From TrEMBL:
The protein's name: Heme chaperone HemW
Top-level taxon: Bacteria
Source organism: Lapidilactobacillus mulanensis
Function statement: Probably acts as a heme chaperone, transferring heme to an unknown acceptor. Binds one molecule of heme per monomer, possibly covalently. Binds 1 [4Fe-4S] cluster. The cluster is coordinated with 3 cysteines and an exchangeable S-adenosyl-L-methionine.
Gene3D superfamilies reported for this sequence: tm_1862 like domain
Length: 385
């Protein structure tokens, strides 16, 4: 694996694959926490970080993100063990340090103080909807009131940089209902929101229901209307869209995710996590026992790694960069790949501009509003390999 250049931004992602309930739409790498070797997993995780960072000793960590699963499904003592262990391995100063949380875990006053104490400065809370009936239908175990309470508890203890997720096109949802969720979200006075359309993923309860004809979802047209509504409402409240699914007040864009969208580098630690260092992408073993095993003999739990060719890097730069409202920066592209975008895509770029799907600004190529609705079709045009 080539060593990451220290001049580039490098993020650090840590995966906690445990949940205390399983939502009907979710196909993330996670398991039900009960009966799992959670403490062994945390020991192994810290060992993996130590072994890996020893190979990349001069890499400055720009952002830290603990996701899942549900990191806050860990007990307060387990969170303290993980975060305390991290402080011994990484120089944690004032970089963005995000932890994903479920509302249920922020109600009893035990976990939020631990997160604060160890320097976590950003929370991403999975709210999904503020309608109790919809929440039940998608397998969430918190109520709307508890989600609001969770955000307020976090604010009270000093978290200001909070993001919540909302999903639309959920069963039982209509435009008016989604609008009520949006208005409630906006009333929380937080600086960041992510909103996604429901995707039916294989191996989920919803996917099985759909195959048996037992899942009623809002139509595709309604899906587009909900997305438009979200864009309009966030804009009307001074929360700027900066990525297809992400909206932030000025100064609160998610720095860790920007590392992904700018196709920069990141470590991935934990079961099933992937990382991208130098020109190499790697992925860890996903099943927990398979992840733990190599670490018992001080081996990194890497399932596979591959070299990303220059053409693949160019494609990825386009796919990821076009998700951003700032688009793909022309100078950044030339600096990284040594040639102009137009030289690489002499036909595709003019064609998409002519179709009204792409526009050129003085500094970048950017999806138009119409292009954003058909993003995947546009991305396909930029395939090189
Ligand atoms: S959505 Fe979050 S809480 Fe629900 S099962 Fe997936 S990872 Fe767990």
């Amino acid at each position: 694996m080539a060593e990451t250049k220290t001049t580039e931004k490098t993020g650090l992602y840590i995966h906690i694959p445990f949940c205390d309930h399983l939502c009907y739409y979710c196909n993330f790498n996670k398991v039900f926490i009960q009966g799992q070797p959670v403490d062994d997993y945390l020991d192994a995780l810290l060992k993996e970080i130590r072994l890996t960072l020893a190979k990349y000793p001069r890499t400055a960590i720009s952002t830290i993100y603990i996701g899942g699963g549900t990191p806050t499904a860990l007990s307060a003592a387990q969170l303290a063990k993980l975060l305390g262990g991290l402080h011994q391995l990484i120089d944690i100063t004032d970089q963005e340090f995000t932890v994903e949380a479920n509302p249920n875990d922020l109600l009893d006053g035990t976990k939020l103080p631990v997160l604060r104490e160890y320097g976590v400065n950003r929370l991403s809370i999975g709210v999904q909807s503020f309608n109790d009936t919809v929440l039940k239908k998608i397998g969430r175990t918190h109520s709307a009131a508890e989600a609001i309470q969770a955000v307020e508890n976090a604010q009270k203890i000093g978290f200001e940089n909070i993001s919540i997720d909302l999903i639309y096109r959920l069963p039982g949802q209509d435009l008016a209902d989604f609008n009520r969720s949006l208005q409630q979200a906006l009333a929380l006075n937080i600086p960041h929101y992510a909103t996604y359309s429901l995707i039916l993923e294989q191996k989920t309860v919803f996917y099985n229901l759909m195959r048996r004809g037992k899942l009623q979802l809002p139509s595709q047209d309604m899906d587009a209307d909900m997305y438009q509504l979200a864009m309009d409402q966030f804009a009307a409240h001074g929360v700027d869209q900066y990525e297809i699914s992400n909206f932030a007040k000025s100064g609160y864009q998610a720095e860790h995710n920007l590392i992904y969208w700018h196709n920069q580098h990141y470590f991935g630690f934990g079961a099933g996590a992937s990382g991208y260092l130098g020109d190499t992408r790697y992925q860890n073993f996903g099943p927990i026992q398979q992840y733990l095993k190599p670490l018992t003999s001080d081996q990194r739990p890497v399932l596979m790694s591959e070299t990303i060719t220059p053409d693949q890097q160019i494609e990825e730069q386009l796919f990821l960069g076009l998700r951003l409202n700032a688009g793909v920066n022309k100078a950044e592209f030339k600096n990284r790949f040594g040639k102009d975008l137009l030289v690489v895509y002499p036909q595709v770029i003019p064609k998409l501009i002519q179709q009204g799907l792409l526009k050129e600004t003085p500094t970048a190529y950017v999806l138009t509003d119409r292009g954003r609705f058909v993003g995947n079709d546009v991305f396909a045009d930029f395939m090189l390999v």
